[in-house]
Amino acid sequence: MARKRGREIDGWLILDKPLGPTSTDMVNKLRWEFDAKKAGHGGTLDPLASGVLPIAFGKATRTIPYIMDATKRYRFTLSLGESRTTDDREGEVLATSVHRPTDDDLRACLPALTGDVMQIPPVFSALRVGGKRAYDLARAGRPPELPPRPARIDSITLVERPDPDTAVFEVQSGKGVYMRSLARDIALACGTVGHISVLRRTKCGPFDLSHAMTIDEIALDKSTQTVDNADALPAPLLDVATALVDIPALAVTEAEGRILIWGQSLDPSDLTYSLPAVSQEGDHLWRAMIGEHVIGLCHIRDGRLRAARMLENHEFFGEHDVDYCRTPHGSDR
């Protein structure tokens, strides 16, 4: 039987995504360059957006949901006076306006767009409508009417006004917020129309531009590899658990770690080390750590501490643990 293509490599590469390619394009390119069996990304950036794109390899793909849910920061330029079909500069002009709000006008509208809000996604988005992508329907001349969706926008700051036609904002937001929609709504709230002309993500969860590498900085040319470093990666990877640093840590013993890895549970009151946060049912996650090593995430379910998502399996402890998991101490029954 032929071996599946790719190496078993684990970790995060933080790419400073360039303008033009899609996020999936970049994942596929880097997966090929790293000869990796498995890869994915933590949060889509549009082709006309640049900046922090976390790319996960191997075990790191198990932590992608926690990056997708994490806080993100953006910097974008709002071009005033034209609305576009795509809500960015790629689309066709829909409407125009000669009105240009003042800086005070722009700042005055921001509080109503901050916090827990309802946001109408761009028609050109990947949302599914009747089994089809919204952007496919829009390109076919049948743009769907998308209902408002809950969104959390932590802060919006007007940072620069280069000229009357443009305004630069910085935004901190949660999962699923469309910056194109936000730019559109800022313009509408000020009595005009507008679209995003520049968009850059500066932070995604624990990753920011200080972690990011450009394509040019990644050693993609393997012709420089020698016999001694033939297995070297084109660029260094961050540890898998780097994505989880914002989640409180819970120290567990090897015995407790075995129980969690084998899919069994623990009474929180019996733990060697106490939980570092109030353990409300289903509301908290902890990084289960043996020493300095993260073995996975756990939470409280039905009054007991259980694995939410493990990064390690029984091989982490060795084959002898097959017998251990059958002992009464490791059983819920």
Automatic annotation (TrEMBL):
<dbReference type="InterPro" id="IPR032819">
    <property type="entry name" value="TruB_C"/>
</dbReference>
<dbReference type="Pfam" id="PF16198">
    <property type="entry name" value="TruB_C_2"/>
</dbReference>
<feature type="domain" description="Pseudouridine synthase II N-terminal">
    <location>
        <begin position="32"/>
        <end position="179"/>
    </location>
</feature>
<dbReference type="InterPro" id="IPR014780">
    <property type="entry name" value="tRNA_psdUridine_synth_TruB"/>
</dbReference>
<keyword id="KW-0413">Isomerase</keyword>
<protein>
    <recommendedName>
        <fullName>tRNA pseudouridine synthase B</fullName>
        <ecNumber>5.4.99.25</ecNumber>
    </recommendedName>
</protein>
<dbReference type="InterPro" id="IPR020103">
    <property type="entry name" value="PsdUridine_synth_cat_dom_sf"/>
</dbReference>
<dbReference type="GO" id="GO:1990481">
    <property type="term" value="P:mRNA pseudouridine synthesis"/>
</dbReference>
<comment type="function">
    <text>Responsible for synthesis of pseudouridine from uracil-55 in the psi GC loop of transfer RNAs.</text>
</comment>
<dbReference type="Pfam" id="PF01509">
    <property type="entry name" value="TruB_N"/>
</dbReference>
<feature type="domain" description="tRNA pseudouridylate synthase B C-terminal">
    <location>
        <begin position="180"/>
        <end position="244"/>
    </location>
</feature>
<dbReference type="GO" id="GO:0003723">
    <property type="term" value="F:RNA binding"/>
</dbReference>
<dbReference type="InterPro" id="IPR002501">
    <property type="entry name" value="PsdUridine_synth_N"/>
</dbReference>
<dbReference type="GO" id="GO:0031119">
    <property type="term" value="P:tRNA pseudouridine synthesis"/>
</dbReference>
<keyword id="KW-0819">tRNA processing</keyword>
<comment type="similarity">
    <text>Belongs to the pseudouridine synthase TruB family. Type 1 subfamily.</text>
</comment>
<feature type="active site" description="Nucleophile">
    <location>
        <position position="46"/>
    </location>
</feature>
<dbReference type="GO" id="GO:0160148">
    <property type="term" value="F:tRNA pseudouridine(55) synthase activity"/>
</dbReference>
